[in-house]
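Q: Fold this one first, please.
A: Sequence and structure below.
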Amino acid sequence: MLEMTEKIPVPTISVIITNYNYEQYVGIAIDSALAQTRRPDEIIVIDDGSSDRSRERILSYGPQLRAILQENQGIRKVSNTGYENCSGSIVLYLDADDVLYPNALELVEQAFQPGVAKVQFDLDVIDQFGRLAGRRFCNFSDSTTEESVAQSFARTGTYVWPVTSGNAYSREFLSRVMPLTPPESHDGVLNTIAPLYGRVATIVRPLGQYRTHSQNISRSNASGQTTATPHFARRIGIRKQEFDVLRQHAAILGVTLPEGDLLRNELVFVNYRLMARKLSDEDGEDSRQPLWNLWWTGASCILRSPIRFPARMKHLIWITCLALAPRRLARLMIRFRYNRLRVLTNFRKFGHTKSSHA
């Protein structure tokens, strides 16, 4: 006699595109969602009170998507709006300046299994004009698995995760934690707490593109003004608040986290601490740590990080040169690091102009 097996429901996928004054990019993001080999079951585009022609661009797609046009509420609330209006069992937030490759949703759907809280994947980095920068975010190692992520989280309280557009969340996970009032954006909190609520599956190949430009949120200060480099002390403070949220959820669920400062285990933030020191942009207890303690913490984090070996070496060389550099040189290095695509673009234009006049 055959045993009856319970049918696993067919997943439905919601793509939520959040937009604010990105008229030059939002159509590209929408087109990438429409071009999927596994079409999303719904595409929701939320315009958060744009003052440019974004809304005209969004509405031109007609019934191919659901447009939500609201007054400006800010990044801390717009993701809640998306969740409240979507129905998918898999939810992917796509920033309006980013892009999905055509097979992204197909591979994400294949990676989702019962008990998975989220699927994450690499993103190719592009500049404001869509040109490849020759690097990835996060540049995951081939050895990154559900087990390695779980082990990293258990040991350090964190793990390597990408920006908003490189994550797809299970509705089961979101239903337990939404709505949120994050310190800044939802992706920071959702990615931080996800391992408490299920497994994290990683696709190590790039399934989309992350666009870097002067309007990225990391380039904004507390007043929303664009800056040449991140306000490192502010970014560190936000990350500390996200770890406070992690500890709150862990306490509710009865999960024990590592003691001490969890930021020492995150490559981005050991970098931020070194750069903050060189820019005299520190506050709190960080300013009392000796420089070489900051460097050693960074080197230890890099050597443990589950990223590809060449990337580890690049990071190690960077923090070593940064620590050794005189303050004035270090400031130039940091400024170039965060504006290199623009500098290289201008350099190419200059070279092209010279050759055309030769």
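Q: Good. Now the second chain.
A: Here it is, same layout.
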Amino acid sequence: MLEESRGLPPARRAVSTLKGLTQGKQFGEFAARADCEAGTHFTKRIGLSGAVAGIVVQVQERWDGKGVPAGLAGSDIEGGARVITLANQVEIFHRMEGPEETYAMVRRRAGGWFDPLAVQAFERRADDIFAELEAGSVWEAVLSIEPAPVVSISESRIDELTAALAESVDVKSPYFLGHSTGVARLAEAASARLGLGEDECTAVRRAGLLHDLGRVGVSNLVWDKAGSLSSSEWEQVRLHAYNTERILARSTVLEPLARIAGMHHERADGSGYHRGATASGIPIPARVLSAADVFQALTETRPHREALSPEEAAKEVERMVAAGALDPEAAHAVCEAAGVVLRWSRTSWPAGLTDREVEVLRLLSRGRSKKEIAEALFITAGTVHTHTVNIYEKLGASTRAGVALFAMEHGLVQS
């Protein structure tokens, strides 16, 4: 609650804190239990030892027995869990209140929340701990002290890891349950329909499982809010895609998925986030993932609306295509993968181009001759000529370079 009320005017902060201590107590305990259970499930899914799981399930316990999930007290709590409980609160308070307030908090909670011996150990090293926290990222420091044997995930187990992460993220809120798995399934099937290679389809599926990893950094008070979000809440929402990318970029195994996963809220017209990229800057796998995320979310209940039927979701996707937000081909493939087939109007393509004209335009942009285009599309050279004339007129272009630039600007060039 300290974290939620930070930055509010004093009066509003007091009200917010009081509300959290009363109305929010039950929810807080529920959330703590859920964190413990989800963390324990995750450690088992990725093959960590039972000893690790035994510590994770107790990190919300308190020395005085007032914690969750089991109400354990004193030495009945694993030593590792006692240290992590203290470390968790120190990091939060130091980030929000500074060293002095953190030091005072630890002393107040000794013998209550925290193991007195753990507090004594902290006091002996407090200056070093604060210096480490203030130095910036502690990522390298943590990895450097990992005891041997170092546990790592091999390439062959990436699918296990991505599935486990997706489950852990989606359990954060009942509104997200199964979301990442659904997005991954749709995105992979749509990628295959678009003719992407096996490796690309696999990458899209894995990115789909991981695309919402950044959600864990945003409070459920935001995700589960039924009313309109404030500007600061929207900023938190917009940052979750950035957080996803940053998290994945930290891993040498998952880094290749970072850019695709981090672009799942980008829009072809530049209205998305977190980059605000336009079609030419969004690779095809990311366009597919974006469309899959939209469709899947529309068919799921949210705090502010009921779930749409697949047909209703497809119509909304079509509206976004017509508005220039989603890639037409990616959206079409996603809808087909979901079992819904719609006839896309010509207005779905920029400049009023038809489906066939877009196919010809792509090949023209690649420098293909009319004969080569005719052979590739199984049409006559005369028909290619007619389409080419129409393309130049609709685009207001007079050279092949002009056509190619238009294709890149509107994301019509397939890689």
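Q: Anything worth noting on the second one?
A: The chain has three domains: 2-144, 158-346, 350-409.
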